[in-house]
């Protein structure tokens, strides 16, 4: 734990301001970050946290203000300047190369060479040296795609230590971790603070984790610094009130429904992928929201990717919209009204295209003439309608989709999906990962609107059990590729569901 003696200032910013066209992204922000301290940054999507961190890492140059490292003013012209000053950041979206080993990923871009060739022995030695310095045990000689999500995140952090930083910025580091992986990961972060004396900036929308790990909490809202407080002097309610604009957190109401005679939109019995057959008995009815819960790698995503034709299938026993299917293709399933939003948001977008094109590409038939000419004004109006309806924050409709925050990319993807005329079943894979509390509640309200008012069906895949219990009519629990338990809303039991997800009652309820 930090003490008065070891809390030495390592990073200080004074009056940092950043403006974009029509947007004041950061307004006159002054903060201090100390060694031996975990300092959490909280705020809604668009509050200014990302812009602030991009100025600290040299991605953006502040329009006004100063940055001091170890008491010395430094102007970052590029990310390399920030790294050289001892500031390193691990982003929410992983940047690992799956087929490369942990050691190769750690040294990627900085590979030692011998005689002009990459020196593999030196790579291993360097990676092991960093691992040893951090005091952790993790395999470095296997492809990272074979590691769990928690281990992959630790590889990212080891890579961030290649330049021996004194400040580490972690952006939503637990967003893709399973429940069993979070606490060991937080213990690792605490060890970086306690053993190495680092200043750690921890960005998260999960308040339980913020309060479990923080020494100091700072709240941003609308590009402004609202407050900074020691954790034990700021209640969670006070923190939430500081973060959320009036009226943004919605009350979720799940009406009691009788699905006995409801139309079955999707019925699955078995799916086969990766050479293995999986038992997945489930029914998704018209007007129903079904939650999929399980640890990372339990088969939730794999099952729906197989049914949706995204993942290569070895066969399946599935009925969709009254039609028995054994093999599928993505385009075929979309035409049937099956829409899946990918877990990795960027996989659900067209990265090289504008915000407008990302919306309109799914509606070419509606927005073009029979001769194939696009109605430009109609496209613009349609795209703006989707953006306004889903409260997407953007600078220009022509900007690249990748320039939006992760939460706003997700709003675009979900917003365009629910506008499809033939939509029957919407599969949302981790739709709220990395979102703030207000944005999450908007997703929950949208799900309930779809099932209650539009009579659509939704499958909600999430690693956060509480949001499934809040939003869904039914819950399926996955373990080792199979559905091992199913619960109606009246049967929800958090303790038992967690036990099922860890294999406690495999096969008993289904």
UniProtKB/TrEMBL annotation:
* Keyword tags: ATP-binding, Nucleotide-binding, Repeat, Transport
What is the recorded name of this protein?
Sugar ABC transporter ATP-binding protein
Enumerate the spans annotated as ABC transporter domain: 11-247, 254-505
Pfam families documented for this protein: ABC_tran
What Gene Ontology terms describe what this protein does at the molecular function level?
A: ATP binding; ATP hydrolysis activity
InterPro entries assigned: AAA+_ATPase (IPR003593), ABC_carbohydrate_import_ATPase (IPR050107), ABC_transporter-like_ATP-bd (IPR003439), ABC_transporter-like_CS (IPR017871), P-loop_NTPase (IPR027417)
